[in-house]
Amino acid sequence: MSEAFAGMHALVTGASSGIGRAIALELASGGAGVWLVARHAEALEATAAAARRAGGHACGQPLDVGNDEDLERLRDRLAKESHGLDILVHGAGTHFLGAVADAPIAQFDQQYRVNVRGPYLLTQLLLPLLRQRRGQIVFVNSTVGLQARAGIGAYAASKHALRAVADALREEVNPDGIRVLSVYPGRTATPQQAAIHVEEGTPYRPERLLQPADVAAAVVHALTMDRTAEITDLRVRPMQKA
Ligand SMILES: NC(=O)c1ccc[n+]([C@@H]2O[C@H](COP(=O)([O-])OP(=O)(O)OC[C@H]3O[C@@H](n4cnc5c(N)ncnc54)[C@H](OP(=O)(O)O)[C@@H]3O)[C@@H](O)[C@H]2O)c1
Q: pTM score, two decimals?
């Protein structure tokens, strides 16, 4: 496992925290060079330092995945400084609770922009680099991307849309040797989940939830499968009910 990603280059969005950070560190510890993306430079640099300690090369690029110009600048930098991309992980995501009846429409727009439109555009921009390396693309989805529930309609809609993007893309790029994985975690112990518990008014007991490293281990398993196989969808959930 420790050399599974040697010589590879990966880009991970949402790499400063939670699930994205855990995936980035797993890739780095397997020998990958990692490009790390999120908005806050300081948190990103902390992940980069941890990735270097884990044995990989790491470079942070602060940007907003909802900003088209930011994504185009990232593509330009990668095109100049890399020789293709082996792995693209869409880990950045945003989340608001609220009933369809009265959740602010601006929150719907924000979740669409960050959870769907950003990954869609970034994939378009980086596909030429991924084609050079028969790359792999990972979409961090959610169990509510499979089954919506009350109080979370806009977020669930964004994740349903993300699943559709991944499914269509898979059919389009499999002939080029590119694999596409959607991972659907249940409640995972991250800052996003801690905030959800505050909003829901329920006690936060992270030890009873999935851990970011659990999700990262599942993703790494799918990425390292022989090329005779493709895992398309991975549902991961906590063993215990919170
Ligand atoms: N935690 C769960 O229970 C759970 C369950 C299922 C699915 N998910 C999904 O897993 C993914 C990761 O969530 P998480 O729980 O790990 O949350 P998290 O710890 O809050 O991390 C979210 C990451 O996304 C980045 N991010 C947010 N908005 C961004 C933007 N506009 N541009 C660039 N980066 C942005 C954040 O960094 P900055 O704030 O610095 O930008 C951070 O690195 C999300 O797609 C989430 O929907 C989470």
A: 0.98
Superfamily of domain 9-186+213-236: NAD(P)-binding Rossmann-like Domain (3.40.50.720)
User: In angstroms, what is the span from residue 18 Cα to ligand 1's centroid?
Assistant: 7
In this prediction, residue 1 carries a pLDDT of 46
pLDDT tens for residues 72-118? 999 999 999 988 999 999 999 999 999 999 999 999 999 999 999 99
Contacts of 81 (CB under 8 A, 6+ apart): none
The residue ranges of the chain whose pLDDT is under 70 are 1, 241-242
DSSP state of 190: S
Residue in 40, 61, 192, 233 to alter for ligand 1 test, most ligand atoms within 8 A of Cβ: 192
Domain residue ranges of the chain, discontinuous segments joined by +: 9-186+213-236
Q: Would you say 59 and 83 are in contact if contact means Cβ atoms under 8 Å apart?
A: no
Contact 122 CB / ligand 1 (< 6 Å): no
Which residues form the catalytic set? 155
The residue whose CB lies within 8 Å of the most ligand 1 atoms, and thus the one to mutate among 11, 12, 19, is 19
Structure tokens at 64: 């907003």
